[in-house]
Amino acid sequence: MTITISSFAWVPPFAQGYVKDLRPRWALAEAGLDYKVHLLSEGDADAPDYRRWQPFGQVPAYRDDEVQLFESGAILLRIAERSDILRPRDAQEAAQTQAWVFGALNSLEPKIDNLILPGTFHAGEDWVDGFRPHAERMVDLRLTSLAGWLDGREWLTGRFGVADIVMATVLRGLQEEPVLAGYPVVFAYLERCLARPGFETALAAQFATFAENEPA
Ligand SMILES: N[C@@H](CCC(=O)N[C@@H](CS)C(=O)NCC(=O)O)C(=O)O
Questions:
Q1: Residue 164 lies in a domain
Q2: Average pLDDT over residues 198-203
Q3: Bigger pLDDT: 37 or 216?
Q4: Would you give the DSSP letter of residue 179?
Q5: Percent of the chain residues past pLDDT 90, beyond the cut
Q6: Is 78 in the pocket of ligand 1 (CB under 6 A)?
Q7: In 3D, which of 104, 188, 169 has the Cα closest to residue 142?
Q8: Which pLDDT band holds residue 1 (cuts at 50, 70, 90)?
Q9: CA 70 to ligand 1: nearest atom
């Protein structure tokens, strides 16, 4: 089976290590599956062919011998289906995996983005400081709930899986934020996820792509 994912050829240093093709790279590393990378240079994301693969012109997109699709959560669920290592072991684990992939992307990621992105992309604008306490409250609420679920659990579902990959990549956004230290259960879970060799492999692969395509 040939698997291809899309990635940007290069992004500025502040974004390196955080581009969302890290998610399929990590899942594929855990699964021990080889893959090719379809690199996008300036303007390629707007090309009609790419828009037929990823309608929003984003990365990652994914294809294998049978299907092509986009959205990192959907991609990871597909990779899990193809892997004896990542495939949920029963219907309940599969349902919980889907629920936590959606939960990470829908209930947590937007709240975390609200906290971290204004300072990155709107630094110095009047509304940023006033918005921050609201964003912090929302993140607190979600972390409280997540800590409640994780208490006494090693992983989100019965064993490490793609839901943990999505969740860890979402929570990583908080690593520079003081709020995470207030949730030792979540902090320890994130450390557990990031200690996996698959994460290091994925990170190194993403950095290698950007190093190879560094603008002159
Ligand atoms: N919901 C999408 C989001 C993908 C996404 O935000 N990708 C970013 C890179 S990390 C991107 O392509 N940004 C360029 C853009 O939005 O035009 C997913 O999870 O796959």
A1: yes
A2: 98
A3: 37
A4: G
A5: 98
A6: no
A7: 104
A8: confident
A9: 20
CA of 20 to the centre of ligand 1 (A): 7
Query: Are residues 77 and 14 in contact, defined by beta-carbon separation less than 8 angstroms?
Result: no
Q: Is residue 215 part of a domain?
A: no
Percent of the chain that is helix, strand, coil (3-state, to 5) = 60, 5, 30
Same domain, 96 and 192: yes
CA dihedral 122, 46, 105, 186 (to 10 degrees): -60
Specify the residue for token string 């994460």.
199
Residue 141, pLDDT above cutoff 90: yes
Read off the pLDDT of residues 180-192 as tens digits, 9 standing for 90 and up: 999 999 999 999 9
**Domain holding 22: CATH number?**
3.40.30.10
Give the structural domain span for 116. 91-196
**Is 126 part of a structural domain of the chain?**
yes
Give the nearest ligand 1 atom to 45 CA: 17
Q: Is the CB of 57 under 6 A from ligand 1?
A: yes
Task: Give the mutation target among 11, 18, 58, 109 for probing the ligand 1 site: most ligand atoms within 8 A of CB.
Answer: 58
The identity of residue 74, as a single letter, is A
Closest CA to 108 of 164, 176, 28: 164
Q: Are residues 78 and 166 in the same domain?
A: no
For residue 73, give the ligand 1 atom closest to its CA: 19
In a domain, 98, yes or no: yes
CATH number of the structural domain spanning residue 143: 1.20.1050.10
Q: Which atom from ligand 1 is nearest to the alpha carbon of 58?
A: 12
Domain count, the chain: 2
